[in-house]
Amino acid sequence: MNEIITSISTGITAFTATNLDDLVILTLLFSQANATFRRRHIVIGQYLGFCTLVIASLIGFFGGLILPSQWMGLLGFVPITIGLNRLLNGENNSESEEESAIELSDSARFTSFLAPQAYSVAAITVANGSDNVGIYMPLFAHSAFTELLVIITVFLLLVGVWCYVTYKLTCQNAIASLLTRYGNNFVPFVLIGLGVFIIIDSASLPPIALTVTCFCLMGLIKIIQTSKFKTQSL
């Protein structure tokens, strides 16, 4: 029973951490709903795209059946790296996400002429889901089969909740802006915590080695960011 409760809380945490940025995109899509681009197209497309991301992430689970759990636990550095990058470069990430959301919403209108509207929404979900795969793979690899089923079930339920919440937010622009702005502030800490949990629980590294590695990752991220800034300024 405790394992199920833990799996439910883990699923909620992982989904929330990886899909807060979808609030912007889904809010834009729901605001564009009309006679030809209906709300059901958005919901169906979101489920199609999310299921595609889950299927791609199952590689981590099957890899966990072959490789030792300690090795697979090292994949926890993926959400840690993503979280550190967002924490150290928060402003740049938020600006790029807003620009991406606007561009993707424009592509949704264009592809609706070439394919069913639901598939255009699914394409947006997949295009915006690289972080999801990077975090779900180590999470699935670390999970037993029963835990995996519980986490995926929680994911699928939360997709529906997410669609409902974002639809309601289209009528409350002030709340949507507030949630998006301050929600991004704690997402990095959730991602880092999730990665630390995966590594420690799988006994991949002792806490001291994990701490040292995280500090090294922070330095590496800052070096890469500085070199990019210098290259753009030239």
Structure described in brief:
It is built from eleven helices and no strands.
Structural commentary:
It is built from eleven helices and no strands. The chain is mainly α. It has one domain. α2 (22-31) crosses α9, α3 (39-66) packs across α7 (117-127) and α5 crosses α10.
Oligomer: single chain
What is the number of domains? Answer: 1
Briefly note the structural class of the backbone.
mainly alpha
Rg from C-alpha positions?
Answer: 19 Å
How many helices? The count is 11
Distance between the termini: 58 Å
DSSP strand count: 0
Biggest sheet details: none
Q: Give the helices and strands as they follow along the chain.
A: HHHHHHHHHHH
Mean pLDDT across all residues, rounded? 76
Low-confidence segments: 108-115
Strand content: under 5%
Q: What does the overall shape look like?
A: globular
The percent of residues in helical segments reads over 70%
